[in-house]
Design a protein that fits this description.
three-stranded mixed beta sheet, 2 domains, 24% strand, single chain, alpha/beta, Rossmann fold, six-stranded mixed beta sheet
Length: 302
């Protein structure tokens, strides 16, 4: 018997790169489970964030943005994003109102409008204005003209500031099915721990390097030694060329040191103890086009 009409379900978050999907996920659960940066292709995994309420459990599935790149990593990102729709109860379709709709948006609208799953369009970044608000509404209307429309709400909000995120939560609860919880009441995410650690390090690299080499970077956690008072972690940062290796290390190792000092506190929060990070930078040519390497790095985990 369900406890007092308990509701639960899976909610997939879709959108093109940098629409604010990961920021929205973190705002919805009021915790950080997905990394954030202004660089496209930040999220490479299908990451679940779990919101536990008194009479509901919402399992959010954050996804990579739909990409138009041609390498195998980008193809995989698209596959992961599309696969996340399968079996979900609701879709949050995030659009960035500060940018006009483009080719990737057309592909997303084609995918989402072809589903029978209830969808909420989140018009994100109202803190930057409503410049392309009507452009997204009109594009969607044209896409579904004469067809069944799965859209149940348009909700303008700011994932960054949190404005009106509560309205989205309420809309989700209204449309969730009655069901038992899927995870323990204290669960935050089911994302494997070593990949969470790798993503934290990669986020700090993205923030340090801006647009110099982020798409050429991967992080692998080679070893985690969880001792009584300290956690020792050995991580490898992979780049495609020696010139990129020099950039990642930085003059006198300053970039790598800064990455370590920024990543360590977040990892310590996960383990609730001191963390020692041993980070190495290695050249692995064309890793993005090698399925075996991608699998080893965890990008085929989802």
């Amino acid at each position: 018997m369900l406890k007092n009409k308990f509701k639960s379900g899976f909610v997939t978050i879709l959108g093109r790169p940098n629409a604010g999907k990961s920021t929205l996920l973190n705002a919805l659960i009021d915790n950080k489970v997905s990394i954030i940066s202004p660089i496209p292709q930040t999220t490479r995994h299908q990451i679940k964030g779990i919101l536990n309420l008194e009479n509901a459990q919402i399992v959010f599935v954050d996804t990579p943005g739909i990409h138009s790149f041609e390498d195998k990593l980008a193809m995989h990102l698209n596959t992961v994003a599309k696969r996340a729709i399968e079996g979900c109860d609701l879709i949050i379709y995030v659009v960035d109102m500060s940018r006009r709709p483009g080719k990737e948006e057309e592909e997303l609208m084609r995918i989402i409008s072809g589903q029978k799953i209830k969808t909420i369009m989140v018009l994100n970044k109202i803190d930057l204005g409503l410049k392309y608000f009507n452009a997204y509404i009109d594009s969607w209307a044209q896409r579904v003209e004469g067809k069944r429309n799965p859209l149940v709400y348009y909700i303008p909000l700011s994932a960054k500031t949190g404005k009106d995120v509560d309205k989205l939560r309420s809309a989700l609860l209204d449309n969730l099915p009655e069901s038992h919880p899927y995870y323990e009441a204290n669960a935050l995410t089911d994302f494997p721990l070593k990949f969470r650690v790798a993503d934290i390090i990669r986020e700090k690299l993205f923030l340090q390097l801006k647009r110099e080499v982020p798409h050429s970077i991967a992080v692998e956690i080679e070893e985690i030694n969880n001792k009584k008072k300290i956690v020792s972690i050995r991580a490898n940062i992979y780049v495609k060329r020696n010139s990129q290796k020099r950039i990642v290390i930085g003059k006198a190792g300053e970039v790598l040191k800064e990455v370590g000092s920024q990543a360590r506190p977040e990892i310590e929060k996960i383990y609730n103890k001191k963390v020692f990070l041993d980070i190495w930078v290695k050249v692995l040519e064309n890793w993005q086009d090698k399925p075996r390497i991608l699998k080893e790095l965890g990008y085929w985990w989802a």
